[in-house]
Amino acid sequence: MIESKIDDSLRAKYRSLLPRELLEVFDEKYKQFTDVQVLAGLPLLTHNDAVVESPTGSGKTLAFALPTLAIMKRRGKFAANEIGAVILSPSRELSAQIARMMEPFAAALNYKAQVSVGGKKVEQDMKKLKMQGCDILVSTPGRLYQILSIDKSGEFRRSLRSVEVLILDEADRFNESQFEIQQDFC
Ligand SMILES: Nc1ncnc2c1ncn2[C@@H]1O[C@H](COP(=O)(O)OP(=O)(O)OP(=O)(O)O)[C@@H](O)[C@H]1O
């Protein structure tokens, strides 16, 4: 981990804004929040938009994941046909990694994250989202576009009305690789 440049009082302020359930999971795994987690988390937790740039390995995934879950918790339970957050990433692997890292934190709040990326039939994913419910959708731009394209009844679009948080992870790569985006139409 990269050496910290921020004050402990900022870290304490950030902690005070996070729900106890998330802190319990965090404290079991890690010693302290990284700088980007605190500096991105503070504006996000006060419902501001944020554009975040930070070195590789600085802990950006939890920097958006924890505030996302905390904001969802303020809203409470999401119905079976309601999505609380959408997280887009440029690749299938990154989407799976995000969902894996979020899983114990989401579970602590009884939220379920579903990954929908290329490689499987989109209809299969749609069925799974509908049957199992999905509080947090982790997807790629290509797959999300594909889901929207086959959503003739508008049911999926309606499920997005409850979205509290939209995350574009590594958004600078969204345009870089049309190839990967096209791949997700498979
Ligand atoms: N507060 C923390 N303290 C120690 N380790 C942490 C902390 N937060 C995250 N990590 C760990 O740091 C590693 C890198 O985290 P993450 O993948 O979120 O970094 P990143 O900034 O998104 O990197 P990249 O730009 O390569 O995707 C992971 O193994 C994660 O478990």
TrEMBL record:
| Domain Helicase ATP-binding residue range list | 41-186
Q: Which GO terms describe its molecular function?
A: ATP binding; hydrolase activity; RNA binding; RNA helicase activity
Q: Which InterPro entries match?
A: DEAD/DEAH_box_helicase_dom, Helicase_ATP-bd, P-loop_NTPase, RNA-helicase_DEAD-box_CS
Q: Which Pfam families match?
A: DEAD
Keywords per UniProt? ATP-binding, Helicase, Hydrolase, Nucleotide-binding, RNA-binding
- Its Enzyme Commission number? 3.6.4.13
Signal peptide extent: none
Question: Its catalytic activity?
Answer: ATP + H2O = ADP + phosphate + H(+)
Keyword flag Hydrolase: yes
The entry's free-text remark on domains says: The Q motif is unique to and characteristic of the DEAD box family of RNA helicases and controls ATP binding and hydrolysis.
Tell me the protein family, please. Answer: Belongs to the DEAD box helicase family.
Q: What role is this protein assigned?
A: RNA helicase.
Protein name per its UniProtKB record: ATP-dependent RNA helicase
